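Page header: ASSEMBLY MODEL / two components / 365 residues total.
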Amino acid sequence: MGRSKTEAEVLRPEVRLLKDHAATRRLLREARERDVSLAQHIHDLLVAREAAMGGQEYNRLLWVPSEQPTPQEDRLVDAPAPQARGASAAAAAWLKRRSSG
Amino acid sequence: MHRYWSEHTRKLLLTLAGLAWEKIPPLYLTTGLPVAVWSAQRDEHVRRALVGEHRFTLNGVERVLEVRGVFTMMEGAGALAQLGTDEAIPQAVADGGGESFDLFYAIGQEPVIARCDGKHGIGVERIGELTAAEVARKYNRALTPAEIRARLRAYARTEQPPVIYANRRPISLNGELRAADDAVGSAVATFISQTWASGNTGAVAAEVAQLYLIGGIAYFPEVRAHVQRLVGKVAVSERPADENAIGYCAVGQSLADADWAELS
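Prediction written out in full:
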């Protein structure tokens, strides 16, 4: 009896992860929170990676149940440049003082 | 004094960076040293202690921080860069932190070292110590560091602190805190009058165009009142404890790549 078509086309790589590593612990936690096996979670992440490369929204793809997607207003952005009138003059003064020893 | 370029300071930096970023970007660090500590040589000590690649583990996660440059200035100078002007007029910053008080004086942003000074033992911690001593004397009860911190914070923000007890009775420490605030305010005023006397007229900082009171001490009403009685108009911003840090950030951003290359 020959192998089924499904078995013939599927790769089953063996993945070895250090048990005591932060990345492994994070994967296990995420899998638990999604209520899927670790293997399934890793599979989903790789599928999501492909989807992200295809242009799907990164934030949605990385969603796990314990962590809500970041609200628009809370997303990290570059801090605005402070409006400090004396900043350049202070920088020049302390550069000079530093080099004059 | 060496704590500003010690392993302890390095660990504080690594902890802050590790908490702020999951993947830490390369850092260009601008920071302050107390007036009594800053010198070109000590600026170099801090640079040597912090510049480079630091590998560390925080909360079970391995991380790397690369510090590409370090720039230091006197405490108070950051706040003046943020709040003051670059016009060549006398400006001054009175900066009270936890354990020390710094007086920074400049023409524009150019420091006038002869009029800058720092004093250890005047600060928010001293208000806590005086309060604890009075509580021990009056109620025969020791305050824990956490209790002191909670009471200082509530008093400075005019909030209600958590209730504490002495011999099964709740005690309020507002009187003791105000007295300690007043005593430290008096010490601050004495220090300012000694450092910034305007000739023999008895006036203090009379020639200064703008004087800023910053640091955690600026939240304490009796300290503010003492400084105002001594020098008249004094500016206190909404977030006085943050002004130095905001100023350091602005100064760091104004440095050119060529400057940072020399600071690595």
